[in-house]
Automatic annotation (TrEMBL):
CDD domains: APPLE_Factor_XI_like (cd01100). The keyword Disulfide bond applies. It comes from the Eukaryota. Residues 51-134, 141-214, 234-308 form the Apple domain. InterPro entries: Apple, Pan_app. One of its GO terms (biological process) is proteolysis. It holds the Pfam family PAN_1. One of its GO terms (cellular component) is extracellular region. It comes from Seriola lalandi dorsalis. This is Plasma kallikrein-like. Keywords: Disulfide bond, Repeat.
Amino acid sequence: MARLYSCRFTTAVVLQRASPLQSIGKTKKMQTHWILVGLLSLCSLSFSQECSRGLQENMDFPGTDITFLYSPDVEHCQQLCTQHPSCLFFSYIRADWTKDNRHFHCYLKSTPSGQPRVQTPLIGVTSGFSLKPCNPQPNPCLPQVYQNVDFLGADYRFLFTADYEECQRVCTQDPNCQFFTFVNGVFTPEKIRFKCHLKYSWTGPRTPLVNRKAGVFSGFSHNLQITQYFTPACQSKFFAKTDIPGNDLETLPAASAEHCQALCSVNPRCTYFSFVSNNFHCILKNNPNEMVIRAKEGVTSGLPVHFCQLDNSWLKVQHEGVDFQGSDIRFELMNDPFTCEKICSADPNCQFYTYVNENFRDPVHRRRCYLKRVITMPAPPRVNKLQNVVSGFSLKSCVSSALHTQTR
């Protein structure tokens, strides 16, 4: 079934590869140049895109890159493209690629037409299309395990297990674990054999940029799942007008202290946080040994929740005069922010939104409801070849996908 999309470009530029997969023989450096893809600021673009699940083996779609991410196989790469707000198609460099060491590279791409400008046969590359028009599962099941593949980084816990199956079971049962790497019994050095590395990636809605802007409203889908598989309700703990200085782990944009708490709660290394209201900075902290607080205006600090259901009432708050900039899937015209909120909540691809009201300074953007999302599926920060290790993903999503299928 054809589906109509609208999208917004804010004087956007897209990195275009000058067929780097073809030019490796000449140079190992990627040749790039910048092209403007937005002729007008905040222009509306419509195109028709069919649901296309098929993959084109040994075919490259050169150029029009948005970004690249690491991915262990082409199916995972396709899911990354599906969850990226503007990716429409992709090219994936497989493990059997021989021209350089860029294995496991997933290049996300887009064009105004929704179709690749060029299709070039190339051994070691598989290309395909986003599954956005196919009504995809929000949390895809990733059952595959990868022999002699290392998911490098993002470790938060280690233990020793008899085999990779037990390592995967531990990862599935641990609410923080998204993927793992297991070191087998013949790995060198011997002292880390049978070691199971549990790893995480972001599962909460990370708004890319939060700004104050008159004439807009922003908020979240009511159907976001922050914590899962726990029925007891949590008692949130906040410290008003209080800072916890030092021990900074990471600073992220957040719309509120409650949003900041959710971000801290899904990061297993976060022990407490401070939210700065004047710049929307959520500062995640790590110190399991002590917590020193001090009074400070404009700052709210607090603690994460563990093994319980987070209070998600903050998802229903609309933030007037706040813009969630970027990560647009599309926009639709409507008369009020409440309808925008309902549309976002009803769309499984939408995680948050910004609505531009009729008082906005630029009439071109008035009455637009921008639906937005970021990637929340497990995504290793790096994927490498490494002998005598096994990597894979938690099977939590496979359980939820099976339940979803049974209830349809």
